[in-house]
Every structure is written in C-alpha cells, then in structure tokens.
UniProtKB/TrEMBL annotation:
Pfam families, per the entry: FMN_red (PF03358)
GO CC terms of this entry: cytosol
Source taxonomy: Bacteria, Pseudomonadati, Acidobacteriota, Holophagae, Holophagales
Organism from which the protein derives: Mesoterricola silvestris
Name the record gives this protein: NAD(P)H-dependent oxidoreductase
Any one GO molecular function term: oxidoreductase activity
All residue ranges annotated as the NADPH-dependent FMN reductase-like domain in the record: 1-139
Length: 182
C-alpha cells in the first residue's frame, strides 16, 4: 500500500508541514509506504494551458498515479485553499490518466485560529468531488496549532491526538477497501 502525502505552506516554519511530518511518520508506522510532496515540490509555475506541464506537475502526477491514497495537509487562506496547492492539483487534473478517479483522500489542516482550517477543507471537498476522488467524511483539524503542535507536529491536546489516531485508522480502512489500483 502506497500513500502520498502533500501539503504544507511554502514557509519553512509551516505548522501544516509540521503536522504533515507527524501524519507521515504515524502512517508509515502503521504499514503503508509513505511518500511526501511538500515545500519545493509544490513550487510549480502557475497553470497555463499554452505551456506543457512543468517538471513539478509531472512528478506529482507520477506520484499520485502510483498511490492508493492521498493525504492533503492544507493551510487555510481567506477561508479557502492556498493558491500553490490548488495550482498543483489543477495541473495534475489536466494530465492523463487521471490519478484522482476513485482515489481515497484524507484532509488535514492546522491553523492558529479557532476553526483549524475547516473552511479550507470544505473547498477541498468540492474540488475533490469534481475530480472523482473519494474524500473521507471525517477530516483532521488542528485549531490553535501554534500552541497545540510541538516541534515534531505532535498534537498536545488529548482530544486532537485521539482524533488523529481515529481518523488515520478510518482512512486506512477506506484505502484498503477502495485502493486496489494497478
Ligand atoms: C491566513 N490565515 C488564516 N487562518 C485561518 O484559520 N483562516 C483564514 O481564513 C486565514 N486566512 C489567511 C490568509 C492569508 C493570506 C494568510 C497568509 C494566512 C492564517 C494561517 O492559518 C496561518 O498563517 C498558518 O500558520 C498558515 O499555515 P502554515 O504556514 O503555518 O502551515
């Protein structure tokens, strides 16, 4: 079982990147092979229908096409999806074969705010549905993340820590059921 995990912001101290690291380590300990697309992997030129897909988009397409599940760890900007992550997905959505059709996706987000990125996840759900992906109904939200995540991205609040374990287990269950891809 191969799981791709993508996200974080482009800044080096990204809370979402920290969370991504924790989720990647936790998932890998449960068995799947986990591969990460973050930071410079997601510095992809803006989508341009007149240009061929840039190398970053080709790499991301290859990664997703060879994965049975995807975790998106997304910051929330202005109650929505940050541009660099939407741009990356937009590029891959134009490439064939589509890696999104039937792909199980787990949404996770961290924010210093009280909503933990839940509004960005609502936008993600609309985009993923359009792509034919299967988003797990439950997502992981980490509110007050500047206080709640330690340096390794481990939630300090027991409620959040328990939610992470429960939702990751549900995601692996979904991936096991739907993830039989060549
Ligand atoms: C934000 N932030 C933010 N947070 C939130 O919970 N809801 C929001 O709508 C917004 N809007 C927003 C817009 C823009 C342009 C920026 C730069 C930031 C705050 C954001 O959650 C915070 O900066 C996080 O720390 C960003 O994620 P990383 O970089 O820590 O992963």
């Amino acid at each position: 079982m191969k799981i791709a995990i993508m996200g974080g912001s482009l800044r080096k101290d990204s809370l979402n990147l920290r969370l991504l690291g924790h989720l990647a380590r936790t998932l890998a300990a449960l068995g799947p092979k986990v591969r990460i697309a973050a930071g410079n992997d997601l510095r992809i030129p803006l989508y341009d229908a007149d240009a061929p897909p840039p190398p970053g988009a080709v790499s991301l397409h290859n990664l997703l096409a060879d994965s049975q599940g995807l975790v998106i760890v997304s910051p929330e900007y202005n109650a929505g999806i940050p541009a660099h992550l939407k741009n990356a997905l937009d590029w891959v959505s134009t490439m064939r074969p589509s890696p999104f059709q039937g792909l199980p996706v787990l949404l996770a987000s961290a924010s210093p705010g009280a909503f933990g990125g839940a509004r960005a996840q609502m936008q993600w759900r609309a985009t993923l549905a359009n792509l034919g992906a299967v988003a797990l109904p439950a997502g992981i939200t980490v509110p007050l993340a500047d206080r709640n995540l330690d340096a390794d991205g481990v939630p300090q609040d027991p409620r959040t820590a328990a939610e992470v374990q429960k939702v990751l287990a549900a995601f692996l269950d979904l991936t096991g059921r739907l993830g039989a891809r060549p």
